[in-house]
Amino acid sequence: MNIIVCIKQVPETTEVRINPETNTLIREGVKAVINPFDMYAIEESVRLKEKLGGKVTVLTMGPPQAEAALREAISLGADEGFLVCDRAFAGSDTWATSYTLAGAIKKIGAFDIVLCGKQASDGDTAQVGPGISTHLDIPQVTYVKKIEEVSGSKMKVERMMEEGFEVIETPLPVLLTVVKEINEPRLPSLKGMMKAKSAKITVLTQKELNLDPQKIGLCGSPTQVVKIFTPPQRAGGVMLKGEAGEVVTQLVDLIKNEVN
Amino acid sequence: MPIQVILEKCTGCTLCLKVCPFDAIRMMDKKASIDLNKCTLCGACVPACKFKAILLEKTQNKGVLPNIKDYKGVWVFIEQKNGKVQSVAYELLGKAHELAAKLNTQVSGVLIGNKLDDQLDELIWHGADNIYLVEAPELANFQDEPYTNILVKLINKYKPEIVLCGATSIGRSLVSRVAITVDAGLTADCTGLDIDPQKKILLQTRPAFGGNIMATIISPNHRPQMATVRHKVMQPIAPDKHRKGKIIKETFENSLYASRTKLLDIIEEVESLVNIAEADIIVSGGRGMGAPENFKLLEELAHVLGGAVGASRAAVDSGWIPYSHQVGQTGRTVAPKIYIACGISGQIQHLVGMQSSKIIIAINKDPDAPIFKVATYGIVGDVFQILPALTKKFKEILRK
What we know:
The complex is a heterodimer. Chain A is α/β, with parallel strands linked by helices. Chain A contains seven helices and 15 strands. The radius of gyration of chain B is 24 Å and the shape is globular. In chain B, 25% of the residues lie in helices and 26% in strands. A seven-stranded parallel sheet of chain B has the order 11-15-10-5-8-9-16, with helices on both faces. A five-stranded parallel sheet of chain B has the order 19-18-20-21-22. At the A-B interface, α3, α4, β9, β10 and β11 of A face α5, α6, β11, β13 and β14 of B.
């Protein structure tokens, strides 16, 4: 079973805060981490490998420092890392990013499963996973919360929906995006950490991938950001005071018109 | 160099530095300097500069779609589940109606499924001028590939300038595929949509970085301009039973309805209070609830109010309630009319998932809990006293 996990290095979002006085972003000490949803994708790939044998390849696109994310994934059980890194890819929106990652996957070679987190915590689009499967022309199942079974050239998974879940059978190769419920990621092992240190990370540039220059980076991106601003801060409101009975009466009076 | 600072124009005002979400700009010798290893060319600094000192160049521009003027009309993908049109579709029709008026064009709904006749009038009353209806037994339930094939065919045939879709499990999967196939820009999870009065293009505003910053995004050179929109953000228009609309039935060759994935089963969660994304009122519990059996108190209040039960990550991780109830960064983003946070301290990861609720009520014994900073009404007290009293009071009122 050849599994490719696509991950993204993101700022630890909790630390991207607004300074309410100056209305600017506070970034002191912002650590770069693996997107939390991708941790579940990495864990699931390692579990599949442990059960079925095979290889886990981890892939990311980003600046040179994104290499650290790949090494962390290797410490968690992945075998090999590929970093798609080139100024030519900068400014990519989800269209260009998924095109570029699909190109890298084709370059890496044969695979059975591509795993992604359901979305990245910085952009929150959930578009790159489905974008990759579309560019690769393979089926997809998004929001997977359980892999029930893998047999031969197909697998059965549970897809989380708003009201419950769907049971879906898919042929391989397939792309899955996974939700938190699918597993509990392990901590890196000492052996894994040693391996991660010395693992070779292969860097893929536009030269290796030879992608259509019209479809990458800024010019391959249909969307453009025209404005970034801080949302109005939500101000705290009224504190209700008194005995439990009193505050409940006050509260009910305040909100009863909203309840019907 | 795709992005550069024109040093003669830069006054060193640091405005650009403040808007850069990637911390890529520094002041060097009182001029802005961009660290290309950090810069993602997102372009946020360009409009922020009052002196036009930052140049972002598209080196090989893909160019404007040649027949861009042929694309007309605002479309809404009408999501249905189990044959029932979902409420987000009516919300989107309301927004589409407003956008179409500004563009002097029509609103069309795309409805794919089986046996949906009974809801067509309702869609027209809520703002649809046309409905493209594609029905077949094998289309009864959503599946990525056939739905993508059909929407792509319809877009290529009728050329809408805007396509809106709910930012739901179905919507996000579907239009991500469609946007790649028709080579369109797609903006996820918008909370604001408007038309630029001069350029007549769609301004798509969405939260990023967990809602800590907002970005306005355009797709000026591609069509359609596609966006998914959060549930509960847009308002449906009041239904007008005199509105008339056109039903356009479309059928396609059978091969387009084929799916490589096979839907074997749909399991509805047994708990009736699970769908927090749809609820107008959410009663949510955190670590302060103390034990799983105490979630009964939340359920009782939610039941009386006709709402759903939510939870913080702490409660879910303790195994007190299933993950499908989790509100916050790694759970769901919700924006109900009333959000009642019980025993939830209000970690930022939780706040980003609920801070756009209309009214937030916080009940917590710790007066310093961060949740009170966002609460419309705060109560410092014991949830085990207040919750049952609240339930009792509402029972009395609502029975009248």
